[in-house]
Design brief:
Elements: E1 5-7, H1 8-20, H2 25-32, H3 36-40, E2 45-47, H4 48-57, H5 66-69, H6 73-80, H7 82-88, H8 94-103, E3 113-118, E4 122-128, H9 140-156, E5 162-167, H10 174-181, E6 186-189, E7 192-197, H11 198-201, H12 210-232, H13 234-248, H14 253-264, H15 268-276, H16 282-300, H17 305-311, H18 317-328, H19 332-337
Parallel strand pairs: 5-6
Antiparallel strand pairs: 1-2, 3-4, 4-7, 5-7
Helix pairs in contact: 2-4, 6-7, 7-8, 7-12, 8-9, 12-13, 13-16, 17-18
Amino acid sequence: MNNISVSSKEINRLLSFLNKENVNIESLLQKSKIDMYEIKSKSARISLDKYILFNQEINEYPHVLDNFFSSSILREYYNDYPELFSLCLNEKNAFNAIDVFVSFKNIINSCSKVFIAGSDFETKYVYQGPDYIDEIFFDVFSVLTVSILYSLVKEYSKDFSVKIEFKGECPKNYNVINKFFGVECNWNASVSSITFLNSDLMKAFCAYNDVLNVMQKNIVCNINNEIKQKTTEYGFKVRDYISHKLNDCYLSDDDILLDLCSLLDISRWTLNRRLKLENTNFKELLREEKVKLACHLLAESDHNVMKVSEMLGFSSQSVFSRFFKDNVGVNPREYRRI
């Protein structure tokens, strides 16, 4: 399974800007083959193929970044990825801060990479998107990435020199982009990049806390590892989708299976063949998620047993009660009294 992906938060960020411009979001998502579940789920990851389609579609709206540049970029990203950006903002200098961001960028987006080309006097950070980049008008995500690097350095050094270039043709809103960076960006370059003087990057940050830094780095490492596991193992994605659909309520097992296969564009036999490689299957994952949600609803909600049974798609209360006792060891009413 291809584990290259982007956080759904990044797609949501751009959708929120497009929504302000009255763009037909539903149509855009359909063209990008992105399911609404993937947008609603904060933990969902969008596949490379869908990321490419989405990037192509939003090229029709070059003004999408206008709202982005009118807000506080680091505050926007801190709200979505607090652990990562807390660490980025607690380093010895801007060079280390960017190094952390580049090292853990996969938390946000693994569909692109940032390479470092350094000399004795300056350091150039080169953005590389997917191979399709030459086929589109302009890569919105290259601008987002470069803007994060710029904003991080700005937190460490209020006065610094910078050179910026972007691959692709100059968009209509280039003045907005130039104003944000405070320099005239070079377009139609061979690569998208941002270059800083080493003397600016190495300025010491007086508020650096080394003890806190170690704890923050451990947390970010754990998050990064969890995402790697989630995007590598097929069962994680399937489990996440099942959980989402069960929370939608009243769907039968077959409905969930059909919707899942449609989302993944595979047959039910292919789905179970892939899950078998991870020593599980759809029926087992569905059972585990139903037990988990049933326990939650019985413990945390006021719904009666019949209502919980209906919400989980059982044909009758008695069928649900047998299922619950077989898996938990007590019937639903006894569990609720514990």
